[in-house]
Design goal:
Blueprint (H helix, E strand, L loop, with lengths): L9 H11 L3 H12 L4 H13 L7 H13 L3 H13 L7 H13 L3 H12 L6 H12 L4 H13 L3 H13 L3 H14 L1 H8 L28 E4 L4 E4 L5 H11 L4 E2 L2 E2 L6 E2 L7 E4 L7 H13 L11 E5 L5 E4 L5 H6 L1 H6 L2 E8 L4 E3 L2 E3 L4 E3 L6 E5 L13 E3 L2 E4 L1 E9 L19
Antiparallel strand pairs: 1-2, 2-13, 3-6, 4-5, 6-7, 7-16, 8-14, 9-13, 9-16, 10-15, 11-12, 11-14
Amino acid sequence: MDSTHGKETPGLDAGLRALRDRNFPLARERFSAQAEKGDGQAMAYLGLIHLRALGTPYDPMQAYEWTERAAGSGLASAQLTLAHLSYLGVGPPRNPEQAARLLLASARSGHAPSLRTLGLVYLGLGPGWRGVAERCLEAASAQRDLFSVHAIALNRLARGETARALPLLAWAGTQGFYPSLLHLKRLQARLGLEAVRDHAIAEPDYPGRPHVPDLPEFPWEPESLPPGRVLDDRIGLRIQEKLLETIECDYLIALAAPALRPAETREPGSGRIVKNPVRTSSAMNFPPNLEDLVVFRLEERIAAWCRLMLALAEPLAVLRYRPGQEYRPHFDAFDEGTLAADSHGARLGQRTVTALTYLNADFTDGATGFPALGVTVRPEAGQTLAFSNLDSKGTRNPLALHAGHPVGQGEKWLATLWFRERPGARQADPVPHGNPHAP
């Protein structure tokens, strides 16, 4: 949270201590008392408690109403959260126009997380917006916003400014920022440990842009998406290079890394969710209370490229494969017994289409193979692969058998959207968030 309204009060401090100690009932009591006195930050934390389901059931309307009151007090962090809720439709129906107004207002106030979010929004609109996107990220990185520092380092690497990029990556790495650590490992493999170390220990050259740049109004609609390249018509197998930018891929990795758990599958016949030696990765997904508007917009882009409504998709899943881990040949469509045993799944219907987006390429092996088609795809960062799981009769297509081959060295990161026959999967009960202070 920011401190737009000055120093924190004893009541707010007590609530924060309770929140850090995971004593959520006490935190809610302290914040409620403080909110009655008109404390905007206490209102914002009450919204967060309801949004993250911290010691209380997930309540999107309460989350929205408390956040709206906090935003009305002028709190930039609450304006940003309200922009997320407005764009996603958490609480009242979606209101993209309000989301844009709130996001611009909070970014124009100089609030670093808002500048970072707006920079990512601009970036997703297409090449014509990249200049203003970088200026937003520079303004946020001047305030040591962790992701923005990482993003500026990637921009410098893309321009061949390795010596200027490495100290920024090293600084973010010392803060435990996972994508920076991945890029440092890649550079060590390419340049050698000694060369990377010599540059990394230099004083970071942070962007000197502490003032807010001119921030133009923007449309939410991006430039038109390319159709991609067809690899096999029999399952509608298509591929698109760089559907997501590297910075966007790293954003998903950064959000997903703290929430990873051993991956599970549905047991054939019973429909129970179990650990399975066929799938040895770690995984997480983004239920409604973990998404923000940046994640949602990346999902919208993938769905639009697949020519499908995002409402048909399950929550976005992010997976990590370490050396030796794999997903042996399998189908994404369920067998009929599994589908019949799961009342929620039966209501949604079969998985019709799978969209795989590779988030990095800093690993060996780990290709995606389609043994029945004789097709193997070597992942590249930002590349999206989509295919149909069903045949023309609506039954599971044996040609859609596929596998994630074992990873050799490094880590493979992957984001997956599975589309169902009917909407409703995105309204699944959300899970509590592991970090109550996350944006």
